[in-house]
Structures are given as structure tokens and as C-alpha cells.
Amino acid sequence: NVAKITIMCPASVTAQSYSCQDIHSRLYKTKAGVYSGLIPVAAQQKPGTMHLTVTLQDSAGTSFSKLASLEIIPYEFDVQHLTIDKSKATLSKANLERHTSEREQIMNMFKKSLPERQWRDAFTAPIHGRISTPFGVKRFINKEPRNPHSGVDIAAPQGTPIQAAAAGRVSLTGEHFFAGKSVYIDHGNETFSMYFHLNAIAVQDGQHVEAGDTLGHVGSTGRATGPHLHWGVRMHGIPVDPFSLLALFEEE
Question: What is the distance between the alpha carbons of residues 201 and 223, in angstroms, rounded to a whole number?
Fold first, then answer.
């Protein structure tokens, strides 16, 4: 659920951006005269047409716009039933306060993305393994409905090194109630990747990382039923399927 737009324009163009619903983002240069942009589409987006406007500006400061559209097709996500310890499923007052505080910290972090794109070539998978829970799965925990799965779970042996999916700045590390030991990377332009349930963290807040750098190792901390990596990507406030992002670069 990440779409990609590509435009070709003359050398006189000096600025490029797009608007789609509440998203406003700059395009990035892929090669001479060619610019691209990534558009996140929410899992709950209703089928139908999404309209977007591409705006270009030339060296004289003159702006002109082009209209385009995306067609959203219906998709039915899988359903998953999990049984976990009641202390993790129903939060005590203390744990609820902890989770609320952690969530507030994370949401504030998302508001402080670097303005410029930090990655240059493509996103890659942080580990290779069996996908135990795909993106968007409708979850029932101890028979109670919960929010759809906002990332992908990749099963892997305890201690497997986890690599940064792309270059960026480590915006937050910590041990959180649900996610366990976690790493968040700001890739710039309101794009973040996140890595949960780690056994150990190998980076620090504020550190710059390149694609492929080791962030930590697979574990089962937080709310986890076994060793795995929960890998998530968030673009302009919208959780997206990380593998749909990878597929865009495989097509190049």
C-alpha cells in the first residue's frame, strides 16, 4: 500500500511536490530530468479514486500543476487469533499509564522528522525469514478484537542481526511495554522505520546509520510469543506494508 509516481520534466524545473488528501510532500530526483514520489495509502482507505496534484516550479519562480489519480481496489486482510498471558492482554493501571506515556513520547517523535530525505537508493529487508504475521491482519487477542497489525512479523532465530532498511537517523531507542526493546529510524520527509522485540540494541539515539548497519538482534521482548522481528514503516503518519515499499524498488 505504497504507490509511486514518476514524472519527467525539463531542466528548468527547480522544485517539485505533490499533494494527496492531507499529504504534502516533495518529489526526489532519481536521474536527470526524472523525479519520483512515494504515496502512502492507509489500510482502511475506502476503494475508489484518490486524486493528487503535482506542482512544479521553474527557475523564474513560475508554478504550474498537473492533476492525476490513483484507483484504490478492494482488499480483504487475513484474520489472526492469538492467546497470550492475561497480564499482557488486559493492562493494569500501572501498565496502562506506562503504555500511554510511551505512546505519547513516540507520537511526539513522529512530529520531528528530518526535512530532507536521508536514503538514496532503495529500502531493503532488515532480515530474511518466514513471515509469521503479514501487514494489516485483523487480530483477536484472547478472543477480543484489537487493532490491525501495523507491520510485518518475521520469524528468525534468537540473536539474528537486524540491519537498517535504509539510511537515516536513530530517532528513538528504548524498552517499551508492548514492543519490547525497540529502534526507530527517521529516514527524513516524515518516513520512519521501526524494529520491535529486540534481544539487544546496538545503536544510540541521534546516531546516523547507513543501509545494512546492525541495529540490534532478534529477540522476544515485550508482547511476543517467540523470537521474531516486528518491522514497521510509517509515512506521513500512515502505517504501510514494508514489503509493498520494497516491491517498488524491485520494479526499477
Answer: 17
